[in-house]
Here is the input.
Amino acid sequence: MGLWSTLSGKTKPKQANLDALFSLPAAAVTLQTAAGFTATGVGSVCYRAAEGAAFAQTQADVVELLDHDDDPDVERSTDSFGFTWLLARQSPDDLSALVTDLHTVNTSLEAQGFGPSLLCSLVGFTDPAGRRLGLVYLYKQGTFYPFAPQGPQQRDNLLEIQIRDLVKDDLPVESDLTRWMPVWGAPGL
Amino acid sequence: MASTRFINDRGLTARMTLVMFLLGALFVALVVGLMFAADGYGYGGLVPIIGIAGLGIAWFQWYNSDKVALKAMRARVVTPEEAPELHGMVDRLCALADMPKPTLAIAYTDMPNAFATGRSPSHSAMCVTTGIMDKLTVEELEGVIAHELSHVAHRDVLVMTVAASAGITAGMLTRGAQYGAMFGGGGRRDSRDNNGPPFWIIALVLSLVVYAVSFFLTRLLSRYRELCADRSGAFLTGKPGALASALTKISGEVASIPSKDLREVQSMNAFFITPAISGMTFKTLTSTHPSLEQRLEQLAKVSAELGKPMDGGFAAPGR
Here is the structure.
């Protein structure tokens, strides 16, 4: 942050970094071969809905665009922190279609100037033992981290570290562990 | 290229830059003026030391601001286990704003308020009172927290400390000049047999003037910084309305709290979201915060900016 933005009290909202999202399918292959985790075909985007007509209109456009095909419709929900989650479903084998869906949401929001409202994206995985895993993409950092919930408010840190080491060649992984924000009850897990 | 809705308030920036320039000029004027005055009495070497000492005290205040402020409010640092909702809220806002998470603390008082302090974004602390958590809805509290996070991101503690350094030095000089008067300052004249008033009188008058001017300027700057934090906070959450309703709620209630509590927190006023004391005299000149009307008006502007479509508008439905 520069001297001028400090003096003028104007830190620009950080724009989202969308590019790294498309490296997910490669990581999914690694996850399946090395750890037995397969994609559930469910993914979600979390963003902060702004007040006013512009955001409502943008959101309606995105939902209409995503619903205008053969796959299941998107589901919208609001969590207890006031953030909105858009949940998209695709066939578990077709991860790139899911990522494309997620990317549609991002680009539509960004085109209307709501890029800074994007918080994270999540793609769900599961293994034969029934363990759940989410790869969470942080838009502002442009990095991924694993999130493995275990019970209502506990996470399986050991599994998360394992997954991080597995996928770190395929994905940009968040190196700062304090940014591994828990997303309890996120749709898509 | 990603488009942005962030508005540039050029008027505010220009006014703020002017005030900061004036404060800098004031500090220079104080030191230079004293040097000229002191030269005639042979104290010339003393003045730069006073200036450096003043800056040193300002630096110390800034460096320890987080610990001192939390202690002054008797706030307790809370872990994610103790306050999961508060931590979750701040976690998300920090991820949204891409900034390090401050230390979180809770002060057990009914006065609805919140403040942020610390020497840099990575050494910052944010405190909310139990009163504000009781009185606001989740969305309103989030607006308040976003406002405080903006203070951290703008490094307002640093800016205000630097801005106050002229005042701090002048205040120090006033004390020094009083001692000079007590311990026989008048008798010690220079060998050149100067007929002017003794040096301590000049120093006293000069520092009092600088202190008074600096007082009004720092208050003015503080009000501008509040407006900046309001705007950035509203853009962060995308809900200027929630912050507006939070401000309306707290401003009404802060004044109706017994005065014993209010005196206790007086020294913290500049960092609060709404000041606990509303002075009746010189109210507009001396308050650390802008008036509620001013803040609501700006939030309404942000709201309008968020609500309108970008260039080119929306695609016509059905195409």
The beta strands of chain A are 38-47, 75-78, 84-89, 118-126, 132-138, 143-147. DSSP finds five helices and six strands in chain A. The mean pLDDT of chain A is 85. The helical segments of chain A are 3-7, 24-35, 53-67, 95-111, 157-167.
